[in-house]
Design brief:
With 444 residues, the chain is α/β, with parallel strands linked by helices. The protein has a domain at 118-191 and 423-443: 2-Layer Sandwich (Dna Ligase, domain 1). Helices cover 37% and strands 27% of the residues. It has 15 helices and 20 strands. It has helices at residues 2-21, 43-47, 83-101, 135-143, 194-206, 217-225, 228-233, 265-276, 280-290, 297-301, 313-316, 322-346, 369-377, 402-412, 438-443, and strands at residues 23-29, 33-41, 62-71, 75-76, 79-80, 107-112, 118-127, 147-148, 154-166, 169-172, 182-193, 210-216, 235-240, 245-251, 254-261, 303-305, 319-321, 356-360, 381-383, 430-431. It is globular.
Length: 444
């Protein structure tokens, strides 16, 4: 815990140095693609880093000056499985983005979707004896949180204060400068598999880059795909990636729950590949152009040429009806959505005042998916695209870029985390386990 705490602090300082220099790279390490953006910060972004705790600020202050994507290699379920292949893919994307930006970048902020995230809700209270709340009191109340026994080999990736209360006044974003008798905090803590993180960190170091921040893609996708009202009133973001599907729940502009499902669009592609006996590249093309999840009478008559280059004329001239294709795709899509539903049930999503669900990610583009998702998840579902940011190329504005755009916003306006306050590391007790999300039902 101590080691990661120090690492996270060092990364936060490095991010500020990079912003002062004015340029930083953003890296989304996915299972199907690696996306890299180069951001330039102008003076206003550094000035706009006001000293308040909590919610995300506006997106001013930076522009995208370089962008590139490449096919991902050596990444499965959002986790690095082959160091050399992933290193090569990261270098390819980074070099292309640097070439477009005409500048060399040393610092990078990365996000990823795997590592079995687990959410915890922590809370604590301290007496103030009627004095004004300062940075010290905030550090004291954060240190008083009972940290659960989250298991060997796990590391804390995010630890964010999501609600402060002074006496009976709850829902405070920043209690500093205010008076009261007692200060309480609710905190969301996300732990991940430590080995997965270490592999990712090592891979980025091998690319001669300094890591200035790391985030879970469920968190950053929610930042960019949920509109302000959804983040405030309560909503879930479901990011359907290639190898993993990230689920995050937001409330009062903070993430209060995150999880992931080890399945995504690549699994649908591989079902098509096996079902029709064709290479994965053909299956991906057919899925993209003809895929769907609702078959109508018309689809029995619409024939799709499978194509191929095996040299066997009969084999390569085969056709399949669109209804058959949908019959292969739909069970897997349903399975992914059933898993997402189980995660949302575990989060107590049904108890939230607003239950909007936003689907994003490359896999969300299957026609008819929103209707099917609405039926399986039992809530209103809409398709989400990332926010528009300055200088982003048109090609990078689709739902597959939600996490990389969210990571830009995370870089420019990070929410406060544990390590931003001067908490003595020894004061972390390891006591009772509190799974996330019970407390926001009581507090809001």
């Amino acid at each position: 815990m101590t080691e990661l705490y120090e690492t996270q602090r060092a990364m936060r300082q490095m991010r500020q140095q990079a912003m002062q220099r004015g340029v930083i790279a953003i890296l989304d390490i996915g299972s199907s693609k690696i996306a890299c953006l180069v951001l330039r910060f102008d003076g206003s972004s550094r000035l706009s880093e006001d000293n308040s705790i909590g919610s995300l600020a506006g997106q001013s202050g930076f522009r995208v000056i370089g962008a590139a994507t490449t096919r991902s290699r050596g990444v499965q379920f959002g986790e690095v499985t082959s160091m050399q292949e992933t290193e090569r893919a990261i270098r390819t994307a980074l070099q292309a983005a640097q070439k477009m930006a005409e500048i060399r970048v040393d610092h990078v902020i990365a996000c990823f979707s795997g590592a079995s995230p687990r959410s915890y809700g922590l809370d604590a209270s301290v007496d103030l004896e009627g004095q004004v709340v300062t940075e010290n009191e905030v550090a004291r109340v954060l240190a008083a949180c009972e940290v659960p026994e989250y298991g060997a080999g796990r590391e804390v990736l995010h630890a964010q204060p999501v609600n402060f209360a002074l006496d009976s006044r709850s829902g405070l974003i920043d209690p500093r400068g205010q008076l009261g008798q007692s200060l309480s905090v609710d905190m969301h803590m996300l732990t991940v598999d430590g080995d997965v993180i270490q592999n990712l960190v090592h891979c980025i170091k091998r690319c001669d880059l300094e890591l200035a921040g790391i985030a879970s893609s469920g968190y950053v996708s929610g930042i960019s795909a949920l509109v302000e009202d959804e983040q405030e009133l309560g909503a879930a973001c479901v990011d359907l990636g290639g190898g993993a599907t990230s689920v995050s729940v937001f409330m009062k502009k903070h993430m209060i729950y995150a999880d992931s499902v080890r399945m995504g669009g690549d699994h649908v592609t591989s079902d098509i590949s096996m079902g029709l006996g064709i290479p994965a590249s053909n299956a991906e093309r057919i899925k993209t152009f003809y895929g769907g999840v609702h078959a109508t009478g018309m689809d029995d008559r619409e024939m799709i040429e499978i194509g191929g280059d095996t040299g066997d004329w009969e084999h390569d001239r085969r056709t399949v009806s669109r209804a058959e294709l949908i019959g292969i795709m739909r069970p897997r899509v349903e399975e992914i959505l059933e898993e997402v539903r189980a995660r949302l049930d575990a989060a107590g999503f049904d108890y939230m005042p607003s239950q909007q669900i936003v689907l994003t990610g490359g896999g969300s583009q299957i026609p008819g998916l929103d209707g099917l998702a609405s039926r399986i998840l039992g809530h209103q579902v809409r398709l989400g695209r990332p926010l528009r940011v300055h200088g982003l190329p048109q090609a990078a504005t689709g739902p597959g870029f939600s996490s990389v755009v969210g990571l830009c916003l995370f870089a420019a306006h990070p929410q406060d985390e544990w390590w931003d306050f001067d908490i003595p590391v020894e004061s972390y007790p390891a006591k009772s386990l509190k799974r996330a999300v019970k407390w926001f039902r009581d507090n809001w």
